[in-house]
Amino acid sequence: MSFTSGWNRRSFLSSVGAAAGSLFAPKAAFGKSKDKSNDKINMKHGVDGSPIVPITSGLGSTGDIYAELGVKPLINTVGTVTVIGGSVMKPEVMELIRRGNEHFVLIDELEIAAGKFIANLCKSPAGYTGLVTGGAAAAMVVGYAGMMTEDLEPRMKMIPDVADFPRNEVIIQKSHRYNFDHQIRQTGAKLIEVVTREEMIAAINPKTVAIHFTNIQSDNGKVSGPETVEIARAHNIYTFNDASADVPPVSRLWEYPAVGFDMVTFSGGKDICGPQASGILIGKEELIRWSLMNMSPQEDRIGRCCKVGKETIFGLLKALEIFVNQDYDATLRMYDARAQLISDAIKKFGVMAKPREFNPNALGNVTPRYSWQIDPAKLKLTGNDVMQALADTKPVGIGSFGANAAGLRGRNPGEPAGGAPQERRPRTPRPGRPAPDPNSFGFAVWQLKEGEDKVIADRLVEIFSQAPKA
Ligand SMILES: *Cc1c(COP(=O)(O)O)cnc(C)c1O
């Protein structure tokens, strides 16, 4: 293995040094869900750490795979963010992944059957079906490819060279441009930005294939989802709604297709808690068929790099089933109980719980955020100090304070000729962001695993005990 970048090599070596002396027991840190895996499955995000087979040599034989590789594991107080691993799968999902490895199967046949299972579970409108994709971003690639190629093999081989395709333009509201429109552009489609409803209608021409709708930006755009669908239908073009991070509430799985969007995508690896590299595309049967034609296992296709394995398909289906059938009120009570446990542990330092922030009608990442107020008359410590100390916790970090949700950035000499969309667009607000009030701190508890609320509470007690008194 060669690390050409000094950045990589340095941090790799330093983390090896840090990890070498600190073996820890993952079960103690992550809680033990083993014997309770059958009760109240919807209530827990715990993973079953019991091995299918004991590993006695090589990687995994010490019981701590993270230390073996010299990487620092994290407790997730941030949210369903891909850069720290998104979400974790429940034991039932892991079991389906294992069973999905039992046999070979024709992937296209499995995908079509999975699509029907998804459509049934998600109460999709008549004539709609589903597709398991390699993430919501992958769903955009194969979805837009399908719209442009239809079932024409030569076009599937040509893409992303779409200059000669009859339809290769996608209309998008300016406020709906975002980090993921790269996945539309990578198919070769040209984005046409509009602001108003009138501009949207005027932009439609014989080359227009679709209008893209970024669900999380609904309230920033002038044209609503239903209006977008109405305009597209009147002009016989398609609509695609990216609602990747926008469940829960679970009802959106059926509501958005019912609005009339031709295709809607949801991430499988966010709160659905399926495999990280999975997504769901729900859409009109013909469009889903064309999407699958542009995707792995097919070869010489743009979506050949959007591979979904048989194990992932089974895992995603199980995760979706558990997600759809969960009692969300009970889940919310569980989140409250986690925050309460933390509040109870730290109130003796004069650190008091602030009112829970929760908007059940938010467009995405619908989850409560909890925060606490430090009394500056008692402790000389800011909210940022607390978040930094949590992140610095060893051997398991708590949160990833300051880590950029967009991931590794490249060099930027001179710039910004046009600027990448992420430079210009406001980022989606995320739970776990640093608090604006310097004396408060807060985070999300929805991706904690069983027992991690206690780990956080204990660590906060330690942090506040050691903090300088005011
Ligand atoms: C997370 C996200 C995606 C990408 O989803 P993946 O499943 O990680 O590929 C796309 N669009 C939006 C709005 C997202 O939040």
UniProtKB/TrEMBL annotation:
Region annotated Disordered, chain positions: 402-442
Coiled coil: none
Pfam family, one: SelA
Cofactor: pyridoxal 5'-phosphate
Superkingdom to which the source organism belongs: Bacteria
Modification N6-(pyridoxal phosphate)lysine, positions: K270
InterPro entries, per database record: PyrdxlP-dep_Trfase, PyrdxlP-dep_Trfase_major, SelA-like, TAT_signal
Translocase keyword on record: no
GO molecular function: L-seryl-tRNA(Sec) selenium transferase activity; lyase activity
SUPFAM superfamilies registered for this protein in UniProt: PLP-dependent transferases (SSF53383)
Keywords: Lyase, Pyridoxal phosphate
Transmembrane regions listed in the UniProt entry: none
PANTHER family: L-SERYL-TRNA(SEC) SELENIUM TRANSFERASE (PTHR32328:SF0)
Family (UniProt): Belongs to the SelA family.
Protein name from the UniProt record: D-Glucosaminate-6-phosphate ammonia-lyase
Taxonomic source organism: Granulicella sibirica
